[in-house]
Amino acid sequence: MSPVPPLEERIEALLRTAVGSEWHATLSELYDRYRTQERLLERITRISDLFQQAERDRGRSYAEKLERKVRQIEKIVRISDRYQSMLHDLNERLTNISTHDELTGLPNRRFMQEKLQYEIARMERHGTRFSIALADIDHFKRINDSAGHACGDAVLQQLAECLRSNLREYDSCARWGGEEFLLLFPDCDQEQAARLAERMRLAVRQLAPAQIPGSLYPTISLGVTEYSPSKGLDQALREADLALYRAKAEGRDRVVTYREEKAPDTPAGNTLP
Amino acid sequence: MKNLQIQRTNSSPSIDADWDSGIIRMQGDSYPENSFELFQPLIDWVDTYLREAKRPLLLDLELLYLNTSSIRAMMDIFDMLEEAHGQGQSVAARWSYDAANERVGQLADEFKEDCSFPFTIHDKNLS
Q1: H or E element in which residue A197 lies
Q2: CA angle, A8 then A9 then A14, to 5°
Q3: Measured at the alpha carbon of residue A178, what is the angle toward residues A176 and A184, in degrees to the nearest 5?
Q4: B65, B75, B114 ranked by CB distance to A83: nearest
Q5: What angle do CA A20, A23, A24 make, to 5 degrees?
Q6: Which among A186, A156, A183 has a CA at the least distance from the CA of A255?
Q7: Which residues pair with A221 in a beta bridge?
Q8: B1 to chain A nearest CA, in Å?
Q9: Model-level pTM greater than 0.95?
Q10: Is A80's CB within 8 Å of B111's CB?
């Protein structure tokens, strides 16, 4: 059996054969109307498709724009974070510069003064104690004069390293002045501090001469005292200074502990070279 | 169009946009209280220049610290340059930094990342 031809073809075939009959004019009119409707429907569909496509494109461009914005914000955040961390590091470096001595790397006088205030506050709150020792390099002027300032600097650096490496965990050592170092011994009375100071003195003596340029044997003298709220910080520093003065006067390379009854009649605040 | 000149302050960079030479120079730190106020005139200037001058534009930068809204403004300006570049205009950026502060150079590199126009980053002591 041959397949039935499509409806349109069958109608068109009919219209070709029976020209002139009454139903021919009616069918012909109906068929024309049908063809017009069909063309209209196609057009509407095509327009509708175009609109849909345009909407889809618009949605995609919004998504792309949004994605671009998100990427931009991510980049801003990333760069901003890096600027912040740069500032943070710079701040740390500046803090370090302002609290440490450039030559020896030890805390400087300002840092130590804060540390002393902290210890005093801790003492008031918790009833702790602390002692201090003022250390001075013996005959430093002679080292500088005979071997030159570069050598003097090297001696300062080496002694600073020696003092630092012999500290206990909670002790501090600062470069207090030219060739002066201030040591802070928390939770120590005068006798304990004197023993620690003696350890420092011996450590310096044990520095091999080869480690010092020009084969010099530097020594240090130390004056020790314990802080008490009744005397105050200035007085404690004066006492350490007086004890150091006596250590120098008694021949250097030694530790002297401050004793009130023996306070010598030397001008306060002076140290021997 | 006139030249644009903004004096440097503690918190904002100097901005010098020269119409005849087509060079914009910016130097200093940028963390202004109102970054819109600072950057909008520059953004307008760049927009006008790119539309009207039809000549090359060079962005010559020596910026140190930028806060977040300044970073955003600079990225907007780079985007404008990128668009102009895409349309065949001649644009370029040059970011100078001090080798002592190497991270400023690395940050310039971050800005450069999405730019396809000529963008050089160099140690100012070597030029």
Answers
A1: helix A190-205
A2: 100
A3: 20
A4: B65
A5: 45
A6: A183
A7: A136
A8: 30
A9: no
A10: no
